[in-house]
């Protein structure tokens, strides 16, 4: 992407490797930690969606209560009674940002990510960010996708 291009990619603030040593036995374990910006900080969101562009197994039946993350089918279900209105200029900017971001992610073989959409009805704002984009599309991910799509489960 060129400088000044719109983006929805959530900003990565740091990547750390944390090493811990167990007191008994002295076995070491390492964990990689990714710190990203908090898109929801100081927001009063009435609805929050984690969208992947698929309807298969993308419905949260428990949509009541605060801090519930809704999915693609929940958004489709809500649109007739609670549509999200976006002005033409904002829509064009959003389309450009998503195009830039998804083209970039595809170019580096990242195929699994979500568009986080929060609705702040108080401020009349949408909070948007592409999240969970740090994993490349590897053979194990390809197998997982195939298993989910085909409906096969192995035990």
Structure explained in plain terms:
The chain has a four-stranded mixed beta sheet. Mean pLDDT is about 85; it is low at about 150-155. The protein has a single domain (about 40-145), classed as 2-Layer Sandwich (Phosphatidylinositol Phosphate Kinase Iibeta, Chain: A, domain 2), CATH 3.30.810.10. Strand 1 and strand 2 (about 30-35) form a beta hairpin. The termini are far apart. Helix content is about 25%, strand content about 25%. The protein is globular and about 60 Å long. With about 160 residues, the chain is an alpha+beta fold. It contains three helices and six strands, in the order ββββααββα. The chain has helices at about 70-80, 90-105, 140-150, and strands at about 10-20, 30-35, 45-50, 70, 115-120, 125-130. Pfam families: PIP5K. This is PIPK domain-containing protein. Keywords: ATP-binding, Kinase, Nucleotide-binding, Transferase. One of its GO terms (cellular component) is endosome membrane.
What's the average pLDDT?
83
Order of helices and strands: EEEEHHEEH
Please give the count of helices. 3
Report the top-level CATH class: Alpha Beta
Provide the structure class. alpha+beta
Main sheet: strand order: 4-3-5-6
CATH superfamily: 2-Layer Sandwich
Would you spell out the secondary-structure blueprint of this structure?
Elements: E1 12-21, E2 28-36, E3 47-51, E4 69-70, H1 72-78, H2 88-107, E5 114-120, E6 125-131, H3 139-150
What's a concise summary of this model?
The protein is of the alpha+beta class and 155 residues long.
Features of the shown structure:
single chain, 155 residues, alpha+beta, Phosphatidylinositol Phosphate Kinase Iibeta, Chain: A, domain 2, 4-stranded mixed beta sheet, 3 helices, 6 strands, 25% helix, disordered C terminus
